[in-house]
Amino acid sequence: MHDQPGLRLALRVCAAAVMLWLLCAVALAEGISIKSAELTHTDGGYTLEARYDIDLSPTLEDALVRGLTLTFVSEFELVYPRWWTLNFWNKKLVEREAAYRLSYNALTRQYRLALGGFHQSFDNVEQALAVLGRVRFNPAVEDDDVEPGSVYIANVRLRLDTGKLPKPLQLDAIGSRDWNLASEWYRWTFQP
Amino acid sequence: MDVPAVKRTPLHIVRTSLISRGMKLLIAFILVLGAVMLYLLSTASANTALFAADLRMLLLLGVGLVLVLMALVGYQLLALRRRLKARLFGAKLTLRMVLLFALVALLPGALVYAVSVQFLNKSIESWFDVRVEKALEGGLALGRTTLDNMLRELAREAESMAVVLDEATPGQRARVLNNLREQGGLAEVAIFTSEGSPLAFASADAGALMPEPLPAAAARQVLLQQSYRQVRQESGEGLTLVVVVPLNTADGTLALQLTQPVAAPLAQDMSTVQTLYQDYQEISLARGGLKRLYGLSLTLSLLLALLSALVLAIVFSERLSAPLVLLAAGTRAVAQGDFSLRHPVRSHDELGVLTESFNTMTRQLADARATALGNQKQLEAANAYLETILAKLSAGVLSFDQDRRLRSANPSASEILGVDLNTLLKVRVDDWQARAPQLRDAAEAMRAAIVEARPELWEKQLEIKEDGKVLLLRGSALQVGSDLGFVVVFDDITRLLQAQRYAAWGEVARRLAHEIKNPLTPIQLSAERLEHRLRDKLQTADALMLTRSTQTIVSQVSQLKGMVDAFSQYARTPEMQLQNLDLNQLVRDVLALYEGHKPVMALALDDALPPVLGDAARLRQVIHNLLQNAEQAVASTTAARILVRTALESGNALLEVVDNGPGFPPEMLARAFEPYVTTKSKGTGLGLAIVKKIIEEHNGSIQLSNAGLAGAQVRIRLPLAAASVHSLPTPGSARVG
Fold it and tell me: With an 8 Å Cβ cutoff, is A166 touching chain B?
């Protein structure tokens, strides 16, 4: 065997690059994407209703089944745009955050979704994710927070909180697409 | 100060120190930050809640610190390189120490690192045991099976209950339900509609609320005529079994739900197993991450420690070599003659001692040099003093080296010899004659004296033929250290001799005058008395003879008296009356007395002649004497001629009397000025002597020569009034007697 080391190395690098690209493509199919988000006026304020498609990566699903608790954070912001700062330092009027904990009980073989003290059990992960994908803040914006007629920007997103993972896994999560699950910020203008 | 001009301050060396104060603070800050970071990292990997969320920040901080340290080390190494290239003193030492420190830090660090990483990987791997995993999985499976069995039991019971309840009418249902519950020992039994809302229920808990509606999944199962089983986890560790079966009554399908809690110890055990299983799985999931985390922490620690060690190594090397650099600067300064640089002693170690010694040495050197300078100044002052004395000395002083080369001469020597002796410095006395012919006599005399009378003191009187000067030379060998030399001191004793001669003649003249004058009057009186007494007694012829003889005696005596008076005059001259005189006028005044005399006196007077300073009476006498001499000289000459001339010659007034008589006999020329030296059969021989004396009293000079083939020439030089004021001797100083 008289391989040329240089050629072999080049081939390896190419292979690695292709694999990386494929992984990225797969990873792009996974993740959280927003389906809809809207603020509807109810008595005394506005209620946020957002719907996400959540697709766990195999790594995350494996981790979940092996007993890891995944914490998802749903965030909502209402900002007052400041054109004179080129929107860099907009004034945040409202910031809301909710943490959902998704876990799996190996004994009862049930998925459990908890928000604060409340929890709900599901027989399969799809059901749990479907419920997790329906985010609702009521009220998200109080009537007193906004002035009717003004134009505001509403931002919303859902993400996996890697900071709540165990330390060693956090290290894995750094820079890994498998572990970083988050929707893009979804923005829309809102005029009360 | 006599400090040499080269003064390269060593300040720039000190200032280019690698580490400034700010840099030191920065290093200290980074080191503290690194220590804190490492502590946090170690606690973070122990999975405590503290700083739980900031692992990423912590790691970034660590990497940032390492980068900053690397930059610092790089900067310092670059600075060191610059210093090495500039060949600054101490840079090599610093480099060597840095390398040494780095080696000392690197070797143990790398060793500990390698061992730690190896140990870490091994120990993490050792946590994961297949048997433990199997046991945990087995335990979990056991729990699941148990729960499944219990659910199956409960389902069977529910089926049998459903059969009983099918028969019962809606009115009997509540009672039958409670009976059945009590028979089965169940916690709660409830009947729901097919949509899932509760219809009836019986509970062991008397205060129980209406049960929750059926879950959608359960309702769907019931519609499909299948049973639904679920284990519900209540808050805490409690487990509840729930079974829902269809209940086909006459008025449609209903759902029967049986609820039974799992016995608490069992539930607890199962929960424990499940928790353990989950923990184990979590750890096994995090295996790679753990290794990476520990590895990263270790690597960061190693890098921080190594880089810190390097930075500190550079700092300490700098500190260690700084005194050496200062010492080097000091040495260089001392080499250049600057002793002012003193270094503060900061440490008490050997370097401190060295610095102290160096300072002491520098101080001693400075003191020694100050002393040497002082001595040199004293010596110079002494030399200057000596030179001043030599310069003011009227005697000429010459010194020669072993080979008779002229080493030094004072100004008086040049003046006396009439040659600038500075041009003869380093010239052998043997060769002087070639360079300056007028020194022939003096040079030969000195050479001979030096050669002949080597060590002894010698003395020699020398007459220089050219200008009639008489020198008194004294000499001696001179031993200066190992150098043998000769010193010659000489005086111009011409005047002294003259003065002595004048004085002697003055004395002789005075005595002679006295001795001669005394008998003259008795002689005259005796002669006159003889004539008076004997004239009448003698006969005419005899009387006539007597008268004639007596007259002869009287006339001769009076002539003698005149001669004696002349002697006295020569011996005792009255004080001079100096005033500005017009020499031409004086000449004309005197010539007026000679009008009508036989030889014609020609005049060639320079009208532009400035006045001279002199005594009119004496100068008149001088002119008178010269004219008389000339007149007498030309008495026997046909076509006699006398020329009187005045002129301005090289800053002096010149008076010249030339005749065309026989001139001076050669043997006379040298001694013409001495009294009683004369060519005339008649005359006192004092004329020229008096002339010479008067001229010398006027600070002038007189020169006799024969003008061509025939005739004598007398040249007199007198200083001009303006120029002679200061150099004139005090009146009477040259007076003798």
Answer: yes
> With an 8 Å Cβ cutoff, is A124 touching chain B?
no
Structural domain count of chain B: 5
Q: How many CB atoms lie within 10 A of CB B544?
A: 12
Q: Which residues have CB under 8 Å from B575's CB, separation 6+?
A: B731, B732, B735
Question: Is the alpha carbon torsion for B21, B27, B28, B33 positive or negative?
Answer: positive
Does B296 touch chain A if contact means CB atoms closer than 8 Å?
yes
Contact B233 A63 (CB under 8 A): no
Q: Which of B441, B432, B472 is nearest to B421 (CA)?
A: B432
The single-letter DSSP state of residue B195 is: T
Instruction: Write the ipTM.
Output: 0.70
Residue where the block lists tokens 């697709």: A55
At which of B492, B512, B531 does a domain end? B492
Please report which residue ranges of B634-710 form alpha helices under DSSP H. Answer: 666-669, 687-697
Number of domains in chain A: 1
Token representation of residue A28 = 């792009």
**Is residue A43 one of the residues assigned to a domain?**
yes
Domain endpoint, select from B492, B526, B541: B492
Expressed as residue numbers, the domain containing A89 is 31-190
Q: Are residues B598 and B706 in the same domain?
A: yes
Cα B424 off chain centre by:
41
B193 and B300 co-located in one domain = no
Within 10 A of B559 (CB to CB), how many other CB atoms are there? 10
Lowest mean pLDDT among A27-36, A124-133, B578-587: A27-36
- Could you list the beta-strand ranges (E) of B223-318: 228-233, 239-249, 252-261
User: B97: part of which helix (H) or strand (E)?
Assistant: helix B91-127
Is the pTM here over 0.90, yes or no? no
Interatomic CA distance for residues B330 and B358, integer angstroms: 8
pLDDT in tens, B170-205: 778 888 888 888 888 888 888 888 888 888 888 888
CA distance linking residue B476 with residue B449, whole number of Å: 9
Q: Is residue B485 part of a domain?
A: yes
Residues of B218-232 as b/e, b for ≥16 C-beta within 10 angstroms? bbebbeeeebbbbbb
B77 domain-assigned: yes
Residue type, A40: T
- Is residue B670, in this structure, part of any structural domain at all? yes
Whether residues B543 and B586 share a domain: the answer is: no
- Residue A14 located in a structural domain: no
Contact B281 A66 (CB under 8 A): yes
Q: What's the domain range around B45?
A: 11-128+285-335
Contact B292 A168 (CB under 8 A): yes
A58 contact B CB<8A: no
